[in-house]
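Renewal narrative, Specific Aim 1. Our central claim is that a sequence can be written position by position from structural information alone. The example that follows is taken directly from our test logs and has not been curated for this report. It begins with the structure tokens describing the chain, in the order in which they were read.
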């Protein structure tokens, strides 16, 4: 199989003297071929190797698992795993699924020590003297506006910066707005949805939430 071919040892592994092939063996042996976790996407990446995909997950605190499509070197990092999102774990030809926990932390190099927040991702800084990584904003988090129902989320939806998701209002709420939520570059959602209901209205008044300021 393609994935079992020898991978070059990334530069930061060499520098930490981690025995590459030995420590990666458990991760490879637990790969789930022909499976994918659906609709729990943080971000996706094109033209990356499988190991880079795993590393992307290791440097992103919110990430729990990855889906990888070998044919297109396409990587998806997920904010849940198959245990926490059982119903979204499904057969999907050509994909492999892998969990973050099955890989050694050291694969993340300097970022294995990072103190990045849940909505950030750690980036390596190769040439800086004092600090070898930095934390940059990665996503808008899971939308938690009252009355919102995320069951209408589509396959390509993601919570990463500049991505969007489709939402609707929960049963008993009436919806206005397109239902599209855009993750802005400042890490905050632009909610093009208002869910109104008895309960929702009450909450709005209570906290003086700017319920009606959406476009
Ligand atoms: C899945 O995610 C949960 C919650 O983050 C975690 O406790 C668990 O160890 C993960 N992996 C498995 C295999 O359950
Ligand atoms: C992580 O931090 C500890 C203590 O600050 C240090 O000893 C260790 O070398 C660091 N590891 C990496 C990979 O930077
Ligand atoms: C969310 O939407 C789904 C499908 O549209 C529906 O079956 C479910 O009952 C809704 N959940 C809530 C809490 O409104
Ligand atoms: C990112 O997460 C931190 C800690 O959870 C929080 O204080 C901060 O407001 C978040 N940033 C954005 C842009 O949401
Ligand atoms: C609610 O917010 C508006 C605008 O932000 C403000 O003008 C108004 O005084 C606030 N009302 C209360 C009761 O806090």
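The sequence written for that structure reads:
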């Amino acid at each position: 199989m393609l994935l079992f071919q020898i991978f070059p040892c990334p530069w930061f592994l060499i520098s930490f003297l981690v025995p590459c092939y030995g420590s990666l063996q458990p991760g490879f042996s637990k790969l789930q071929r022909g499976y994918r976790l659906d609709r729990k996407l943080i971000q996706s990446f094109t033209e990356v190797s499988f190991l880079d995909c795993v590393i992307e997950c290791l440097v992103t605190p919110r990430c729990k698992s990855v889906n990888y499509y070998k044919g297109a070197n396409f990587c998806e990092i997920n904010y849940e795993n198959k245990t926490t999102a059982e119903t979204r774990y499904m057969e999907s030809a050509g994909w492999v699924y892998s969990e973050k926990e099955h890989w050694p932390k050291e694969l993340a190099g300097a970022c294995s020590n990072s103190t990045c927040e849940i909505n950030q991702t750690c980036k390596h800084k190769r040439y800086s003297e004092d600090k070898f990584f930095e934390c940059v904003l990665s996503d808008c988090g899971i939308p938690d506006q009252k009355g919102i129902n995320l069951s209408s989320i589509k396959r390509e939806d993601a919570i990463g910066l500049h991505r969007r998701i489709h939402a609707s209002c929960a049963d008993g709420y009436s919806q206005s707005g397109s239902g599209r939520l855009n993750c802005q570059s400042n890490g905050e959602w632009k909610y093009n949805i208002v869910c109104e209901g008895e309960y929702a209205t009450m909450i709005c008044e209570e906290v003086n939430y700017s319920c009606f300021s959406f476009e």
